[in-house]
Design a protein that fits this description.
Blueprint: H1 3-25, H2 27-82, H3 86-160, H4 163-192, H5 195-228
Helix pairs in contact: 2-3
Length: 234
């Protein structure tokens, strides 16, 4: 095999794959093409069957005509014999034999053609049934394709809803709350270390010291009074 032959094979293979891919992505068009092709063949078969049926009907008509002629000949023959018309009787006998042979041949041909017509009609009906079956298959296949695509789309949507996004959102909320708490805590801490807070603490201590000094003075004063008013030595 030469280079160009191999190249042609590669190209045909590539073209086949390309066509297969297009067909896979357009099943409805493939079904329609197949149905149209079968409808076209059905018309051709119907035309052929009509030709067979025409021939059967023609043979049937010829057979009926010959049988009527034979019936007439058989009715004329005794009259010719009785009338002594030997020459006429001989002609009638020859015609009778010819008609009998022709009727036998026509009958055989008619049976053959009739059988062919019946087979052809049965085949035509079967082919029509195949077309209807293919149409139903097309509807089911298209519905199954749409259903599968919808399921895939739903699955892809669910896959896209990753829990990572939810976890990250929760982490952001938690971090924000913690920052707010820290901000509140630092406010309290700064408030405790402020000059006003320190001054308040000093004032509180001073007040406590003054109160303690007053308490001590009162205790001392009371103790002195108790000493002065105590029992005297006799």
């Amino acid at each position: 095999m030469g280079f160009f032959d191999r190249l042609a094979n590669v190209w045909r293979g590539f073209l086949s794959l390309w066509v297969s891919d297009i067909e896979a992505r357009n099943p409805e068009a493939v079904y329609e093409a197949a149905i149209d092709e079968r409808v076209k063949k059905h018309r051709e078969l119907k035309k052929a069957v009509s030709g067979i049926v025409y021939l059967r009907n023609k043979l049937s008509t010829e057979l009926e005509t010959k049988e009527r002629e034979l019936k007439d000949v058989m009715a004329q023959l005794p009259v010719a014999v009785e009338d002594g018309e030997d020459e006429v009787a001989l002609l009638l006998i020859q015609k009778k034999d010819e008609l009998t042979a022709s009727i036998e041949a026509t009958s055989a041909e008619l049976k053959k053609v009739s059988d062919q017509a019946e087979d052809a009609k049965a085949g035509l009906l079967q082919f029509q049934g195949e077309i209807e079956k293919l149409k139903r298959e097309k509807e089911k296949a298209i519905a199954a394709k749409a259903n599968a695509e919808a399921r895939i789309e739903i699955q892809q949507t669910l896959d896209g809803l990753s829990t990572d996004a939810d976890v990250k959102a929760l982490d952001n909320v938690r971090e924000h709350i913690q920052k707010l708490q820290a901000e509140a805590d630092i406010g309290s801490e700064l408030k405790g270390d402020s000059l006003d807070a320190k001054l308040s603490k000093i004032k509180e201590k001073a007040n406590n010291a003054s109160a303690r000094a007053q308490l001590a003075a009162m205790k001392q004063q009371m103790a002195g009074r108790a000493t002065e008013g105590g029992p005297k030595n006799l």
